[in-house]
Amino acid sequence: MNNEELLNIKDLKVYFPIRKGIFLQTVGYIKAVDGVDLQIKSGENLSVVGESGSGKTTLGKTIVGLIKPTGGKVAYNYNGKSFELFRSVPINVRQSVQMIFQDPFSSLNPRLKIVDTLKEALEIRKMFRTKREMIDYLGTLLEKVGLKREYLYRYPHEFSGGQRQRISIVRAISVKPKFIVLDEPTSSLDVSVQAQVINLLKELQRELNLTYFFITHNVAIAKYIGQKIAVMYLGKIVEINDSENLINSPFHPYTRLLLSAVVEPKIEHEKEIKVGGEPPSPVNVPSGCRFHTRCPFAMKICEEVEPDLVEYGGAFVACHLYSKERTKQIEKS
Amino acid sequence: MKLLNVKNLRISFKTSKSELLAIDGISFEVNKGEILGIVGETGSGKTITSLSIMRLLPGNAKVSGEILFNNKNLLDLSEKEMDEIRGKKISMIFQEPMTAFDPLYTIGAQFSEVLFKHERIRKEEIKRRSVEMLKLVGIPEAEKRFDQYPHEYSGGMIQRAMIALALLTNPELVIADEPTTGLDVTIQMQVLNLMKRIQRTSNLSMIFITHDLGVISKMADRIIVLYLGKILETGNVKDVIFSPFHPYTQGLVSSIPTLSTSRTGKLHSIPGNVPSLSEIKKGCRFYSRCSQRMEICKEKSPTLFEVSSGHYVACWAVEKNRNLVKMDEQ
Amino acid sequence: MKKTKETKNVETDFQKMVRVFLKSPFGIAGGIILIILYLMTLFAQFISPYNFTDLHSKYRYLPPTPIHWIDSKGKFHIFPFVYGIKEKRNPITYAMEYVVDKNEIYPIHLFVHGESYKFLNLFRTNVHLFGISPKAHGMLALFGTDKYGRDLFSRTIVGGQVSMTVGLLGIAISFVIGIIIGALSGFIGGTFDLIIQRLIEVLMSFPTLPLWLALSMIIPPSWPSTWVYFGIVTVLSLLGWTGLARVIRGMTLSMRDKDFISAARLAGQTKIKIIIHHVLPNIMSYVIVVATLSIPGMILAESTMSFLGLGIKEPMTSWGLLLSNAESLESISLHPWFLIPGAFIIIAVLSFVFVGDALRDAFDPYQYERK
Questions:
Q1: Contacting residues of C for A111, CB less than 8 Å apart
Q2: Which residue from B187, B196, B269 is facing A199, i.e. has the nearest CB?
Q3: CATH architecture of residue range(s) B2-89+173-191+202-259+267-279
Q4: What confidence tens digit (pLDDT) does each residue in A38-78 have?
Q5: ipTM score over 0.95, yes or no
Q6: Spatial CA neighbour of C267 closest among B32, A97, B85, A151
């Protein structure tokens, strides 16, 4: 594992215009990602947690180049050179970044046999001289993820959700990527299958020297996969820390809220946990700190000034409770 | 006191090729003021069970056994008598409230329809009771909300409205089918708190169906673990979750990563996939994935036996170990 | 509803489709009628007892000839026969009238030698499927004759060659235009999509009749009739692609965000190949339904144009052109058999609609779920 920087995201913004009328004038924006700074080091898995509308999936898709950023930059380093993946890049660079999707039912083309889905990327890359070698390679990969070789000649509808997700994993790792974005890969699977897929992902990561960008709403899985966890709220990262630390000593009030809302078996559920409000829509982002409408510690400054992500106690937190402005205020009074 | 008593329920579906046995002779009861949780994965038949209580199964379903509600067998009632019970005495909370509400009518209109159908009361009275119910489930500005359309509600609000609708006629039994599955964790917590509070204050009986062991351990008093149409384990929630006996329940409980799970270890997992109903052979339905299977499991389906007071397990291996222990004691 | 997921369906999509299609009696009936109609147009000259351009000046405006099995003496004939026809001037109106001559009996035979024609454009022959002796004093005019004494039955069958193929050819061309423009518009999106969509709206908002008038004016009157035929097809498809393009664009849009398309993009696949390999195969079934359902529109359009004298010209013929014989009330009341080609138009159009509807059901995935 080396610690070279793989991704450098600077002030990334992804806005989706809301259009109306016959000439489709833009009447507003959905600010899915609204100013994200992030560095990912090679071999260091990052988990991103957040609720729906937090922009975590958009962030993932922008990182792999499926969505063009509205502002800011995603720089991807490949062999010492920097690339922007939404532009046209050499095929080996393009294929070194892959994505595994949430819905196993829409991630495979229903009209193609598994072999035809899997060979597409390999043929573009011209990785094999003969068809036989390629089939052999794909068969070995299927066996590696716990499927059978003969599944190559079946259609997606013959498989369960868990099996499809394994096939998607084969498609992603077949091109020997360095970096994989995983968008809630287990959230639509049965509980008994979910653990298998998580184990498989972790095994592959170690064996193939991959780096994961793991998107999830489940904090426990986020911790299990990622060395670090980033918490997103309404298009912004509110806290990043080593996963153990983030869970054991959360700083940001939203992180605390999120953790307290986790329901797990085998714990006492006697007392009722207070969890207020609902996230506002990303079309009308509140002024100042985005979380102030739900925050139990909201102060005057929170409505006016948006807090920066600053280092505090080993973590990076965007909250006035820990910011310089706040410290100044305290000093004044 | 038993409110609902289901005896030897069997549900099968006729398809063009074969007959699939979705529920294979299950029995359970719901007592007054208790939440019964049903946990199961895809194909376990948890939704089919709840639909059979409401008599809402599609036409190709064949149902046998008894569903006694207040000692009346629901399966014997006429469609008209069932109409009196459905939505009035027994009501349902669905997973997708957005599809459960008709987008063309206001929430108020849909509340009024239900109230008017079952109670024939005056308009002002209907509105008063609806608004009161909306307030109870924590919807702010309930009077204004009464006249709004479903799309004007957020995801958490519409699920609250769904709960309010289910409680509107003061039902004796509420069936909640994955009521928080599509919700964000913070909203889920709010909705679960709300449901539990209302259930406790009005001494309601509830069947709570979910695949989420965390949610069920928060909500239920007793639970049923359903796998491919069979009850594998049932008992008080603490007994089943903290000291499960059946290999399936054990696997399920330990395969869920929690906040305290170590990052370095491997997650425990149940091998294989949930088989489809058409692949089921005789013997124990969990046989193909079981870590403790024996010869007999392949041949004979195990029946529930009591391991401790009120805690039942259907597993040959558990039964064998028990007997060995007993023999040792003797 | 959960069951379909649980049972492993080994039945392929195509088998499912056929099974659902065969459940629709209207679809089957429409299909059979269409097969008959197309076989008829393929062997038109062989089936028709006379050449469609041959004039029979002795038998103008002849009403459909009745077919008999029993003659005036009450004798039964194994072969059906027609009576001979004599011309007679009406003593009061001085108009020529046809009188049945019951003394002359002309049996209808199979494989009769008659006027010569080129079979399937391959070789010359004079064998017709059925007919009466060419030397007979009379005609076997099942649908009557027109003002030149041409056999309307033969003309209707040959006219079907134009009417039944104009829709197919037209749809084939607008299919190609529609797929290219629709798929690109949906997949590329942005300004390109905006311009294409507005262009389609402008094209669609034009009143069709004046547009046909204008476009058919471009076709020079000096063109031979086959060229005119292709001219008409071109006009129809140039106006007909818009609807298809819209449908295809909509479906492409819904496919564009599917995860397997994203995966193909991450594999570095080109846009064109993604459209060809992933988008089109997945929307093709719906496109075929829409295409089938737009054929009747083309058939009707050709009929309308020909009826108005803007389409197919003599000596070629089509159902629309044949219908133009019945352009006045007087003509219809005197010669009601001139309306028979209209019945063919209705039957063909309905058959396409039925088949299209049945196909739509067969392709509809929700239909399987209910099974």
A1: 281-282
A2: B269
A3: 3-Layer(aba) Sandwich (3.40)
A4: 999 999 999 999 988 889 999 999 999 999 999 999 999 99
A5: no
A6: A97
